[in-house]
Amino acid sequence: MAPYGSDDSIGAEEADGRPAGRRRAVRYAVPVAVVGMAAATIGLVPAIADSGSPDLPKITAQQLIEKIARSDVQQMSGTVRISTDLGLPDLGGLEKGLISGADKGGEGSSADPKSKLTELAFGTHTVRVATDGPDRQKISLIEDAAEYSLIHNGKDVWGYDSRSNEVFHGTVEDDGRTHDKHDKHRSEVPATPKDFADQLLKSVDDTTSVTVDGTAQVAGRDAYRLVVKPKHASGTTVGAVSIAVDAATGLPLKFTLTPASGGAAVVDAGFTRISYDKPAASAFDFTPPKGARITEEKDRGKDAGKEPGKDAHSRDLGPAGKGLARSGGPKIIGEGWNAVAVFDSGASGTEDGTPRAFGHGDPSRFLSSLGDRVSGAFGKGTVFSTRLINALMTDDGKVYVGAVTKEALVKAANSER
Amino acid sequence: MSRAETAVRSPRPLRTLGLLRSELTTTFRRWRTLALLGVLAAVPVLIGAAVRIETSDGSPAGPGDGGEGPAFVAQITNNGLFLVFTALAVTLPFFLPMAVGVIAGDAIAGEAHAGTLRYLLVAPAGRTRLLLTKYAATVAFCLAATFVVAVSALAVGALLFPLGDLTTISGTRIGFTEGLGRALLIALVVALSLTGLAALGLFVSTLTNSGIAAMAATVGLLITVQILDQIPQLHAVQPYLFSHYWLSFADLVRDPVHWDDLVRNLQVQALYTAVFGSAAWARFTTKDITA
Predict the structure, then answer these.
(1) pTM, rounded to two decimals
(2) Per-residue pLDDT for A121 more than 80?
(3) What torsion, rounded to 10 degrees, do the Cα atoms B228, B234, B236, B238 define?
(4) For residue A3, which residues of chain B lie inside 8 Å, CB to CB?
(5) Which of A28, A79, A149 faces B171 most closely, judged by CB atoms?
(6) Which residue is closest to A282 within chain B, CA to CA?
(7) Within 13 Å of residue B57, how many CA atoms lie on the same side as its CB?
(8) Among A176, A322, B43, B174, which is most exposed with the fewest C-beta within 10 angstroms?
(9) What pLDDT digit, counting tens, does each position of A373-402 carry?
């Protein structure tokens, strides 16, 4: 066997009389073609997946709202993707401290649902939900190599943070208050598009226009798109809210809130996968793992019970406002979309005074550097802006918060005097 | 003529196996390979001992409040099986891929450097088949390295900590056998996560005649990609970096398993293998072998 004949591929092609340079070019075309095919697939597949707008019978906005109200999905499980983009500067996690500062108070367990709520207010998260009747629900917040689960099974409510191996335990009484208490725990983590939609539809009144805007396909299901807009877009920063509603079950599948200033959605929460099958019973069983640190609900301070007016007002404020709303009963100026919540942090130093909402230490000077100085009949103050929520902090310690423009805030502050 | 041709061609599958066998023996008999595997086996021992000493006074593992530290470290004291997951999470970012980079970078360039490449090509195997064999041997090393870490971690975990039913990170409970099955699956996924880098290293290896240069370039690429993956401004390209979904193996400890990122990881590895495997083929089958 001659050594020259050993390399079959080269020998064969040399015999074809093709020049070596061309052969090399042809071979290098293979990896290039693979890259091209991959790029085409990555570019085209999402475009094809998004293009579905199924043919569904016409429906009025009123009928669709009734469909949502009637919706009684007892069993389902799915994956929800939540993106929140308030346009805050990236403070490297500091913003979490600012907002959760009011709740944590130093003694909090990382498995406490309250401390987890604020995580949903920033960035993109994947949440898995499972429901089996009114007594069994589970919400899991997927983190890198860790997970936070909130499990409601019968009388027990468990929070489990796998990263720190901490467990939070609360109970729901077996009496008439069950539903309230359950709702309380549930609403602490507004995770599903339905939670967002419920909050919104509660407030539909004559300042709001509700229309059905075609159909869409969400998580492989045919859905109607319900668009809710402020009618007199005077002071509010909310542009429009679009809700995709499952045509068959009436379950909201996707919730998108776009600001009046345009650009990307501020809140975008939608199912990426949903199944109406009964979830495995084992999903709701929870026994605290050995060695886990367990925090009982009644141990975590007394502030859990008094959250006056939280649900009534938090809608206009969004998740971030909710954190603020919890720290004291705010007063509301204006109504509908232009509502502004007022907190009086005052010098009187109420136990739940607002300054605590802005974290520990003395960050006020740092905060001032982030805001714009404004003045009016009310005096002087600083406005902190996000793409949705603006807050005015006056020099005499009052805080005005709302999903309204800077001018509307100043007007509200003036009207107070 | 035709008889002579069949005589040459018929034993080919066997010869490929023979080539692969000799390739595997040379790879795994090298002191370098054994030293790499030894270092990898030592990592779980180190973690296990550290956790054991830290928790000997009854305090929980890891900083209790912040929840920082390697993945799953808080659960090790309750179940030794979690040491397998922690050890893989610790070794996957650098130790494992560095070892793979060394083996893959050395595959062709090392032979060229030692002057043995042309003798390999004298055997009637063909360049394509030699390249495939080299890649197969590298992938075999990926598997071996991952299982060395996993088995060492399991042994240390069983020795120092209790074993038994484990709580998944979703809060549900699974039996020990199923947990062991998931650990096996995780080791497999981790090994597959390294195949993209192995193909990249093989391509680099065909570019040069210096084994050291190829290893250094591969490991340098690995470090560069790992750094790029940390820069938030580059989030648009990060999903296409080969290391971006590496830690998605942790999704196998969820219940039910969260497949999205796992599947994406395997797709990315397949893409890198296809692109750099074919690039290595294009380079290796057309270049002049002078050494």
Answers:
(1) 0.79
(2) no
(3) 10
(4) 122
(5) A149
(6) B172
(7) 2
(8) A176
(9) 888 888 888 888 888 888 888 887 788 888
**Contact at CB, A142 and B281, closer than 8 angstroms:** no
Contact A287 B167 (CB under 8 A): yes
Q: Taking a C-beta distance cutoff of 8 angstroms, is the pair A254, A79 a contact? A: no
pLDDT of residue A362: 52
Do B250 and A285 make contact, defined as CB atoms within 8 angstroms?
A: no
Q: Is the dihedral of CA A403, A406, A407, A413 positive or negative?
A: positive
- Whole-angstrom distance, CA of residue A148 vs CA of residue A158: 10
**What percentage of chain A carries pLDDT values higher than 70?**
67
A307-311, A372-376, B5-9: which range is least confident on average?
A307-311
Strand partners, A271: A80
Q: Chain A closest CA to B174's CA: distance in Å?
A: 9
Judged by CB atoms closer than 8 Å, whether chains meet at B67 and A161 is answered as yes
Least confident interval from A330-334, B61-65, B243-247, B270-274:
B61-65
Q: What is the pLDDT of residue A363?
A: 54
Cβ <8 Å between B282 and A31? yes
Q: Which pairing describes strands A340-344 and A372-376: parallel, antiparallel, or unpaired?
A: unpaired
**CA distances, A386 to each of A273, B15, B24 (Å):** 31, 68, 60
**Which of B251, B260, B286 lies at the smallest CB-CB distance from A24?**
B286
Per-residue model confidence as pLDDT tens digits over B132-158: 999 999 999 999 999 999 999 999 999
Q: Is A23 on the interface with B (CB under 8 A)?
A: yes
pLDDT in tens, A7-58: 444 444 444 445 677 888 888 899 999 999 988 888 877 766 665 677 888 8
A9, A162, A282 member nearest B169 (Cβ):
A162
Cβ pairs A/B, distance under 8 A:
131
Pick the CATH number of A61-299 from 2.50.20.10, 1.10.3720.10, 2.60.40.420, 3.10.20.310: 2.50.20.10
Residues 261-300 of A with CB under 8 A from B: 272, 280, 282-283, 285-287, 289-293
Of A20, A34, A282, nearest to B274 by CB-CB distance is A34
Distance CA B89, CA B72 (A): 9
How many Cβ atoms sit within 10 Å of the Cβ of residue A375? 11
Chain B closest CA to A316's CA: distance in Å? Answer: 31
Contact B258 A9 (CB under 8 A): no
For residue B38, what pLDDT is reported?
96
Q: Where do the domains of chain A lie?
A: 3-50, 61-299, 310-416
Residue of B nearest to A141 (CA): B170
More confident residue, B213 or A230: B213
What ipTM does this complex have?
0.79
Q: Give the residue-averaged pLDDT of A130-145.
A: 87
List the one residue out of B183, B178, B182 whose CA is nearest residue B147. B183
